[in-house]
Design a protein that fits this description.
It contains three helices and seven strands. Helices cover 20% and strands 28% of the residues.
Length: 139
């Protein structure tokens, strides 16, 4: 079984370090004996960024995919965007197939989608928050 979590919403200002999040998520995946996937805003070695992840049933992280584009859909955040950097498109072999991941609105970029499939992905995960225009209306 695979559980795909929605991205976290860091509203209280408490952002976990990547190493702490990886340790905690690995324990959950191992305890529940599930593949666990999602994305979170984390303190990484190079600063705060949104990172996608997949853990196997043994709690081992088998995929890490940093978000490439800024957070357009849910509002700009104080996190790193990698639009000017070379991107890697990792894939992970699982019992469900070869997984790739694009976080949030990265999936809206056809070049990113193609690069993920050219890297060998058979399934493309997209932990994202969908925001409709109605949700933005604050009247």
């Amino acid at each position: 079984m695979m559980v795909l979590l929605p991205p976290d919403e860091q509203r209280d200002g408490k952002i976990l370090s990547e190493s702490e999040a990886v340790a905690r998520l690995g324990v959950v995946a191992r305890a529940l004996r599930v593949h666990l996937a999602g994305a979170a805003t984390l303190r990484c070695a190079d600063g705060v960024r949104t990172v996608g992840f997949v853990f196997d049933r043994d709690g081992k992280q088998i995929l890490r995919m940093p978000k490439i584009t800024p957070d357009f859909l849910i509002g700009f955040s104080d996190s790193i965007a990698s639009t000017g950097s070379a991107a890697q498109f990792p894939v992970a072999d699982t019992p469900f197939g070869r997984l790739g991941m694009l976080v949030g609105e990265d999936i809206l970029y056809g070049t990113h989608v193609r690069a993920t499939f050219f890297a060998g992905a058979e399934i493309l995960l997209n932990p994202a928050i969908e925001v409709s225009n109605d949700a933005l209306d604050t009247r």
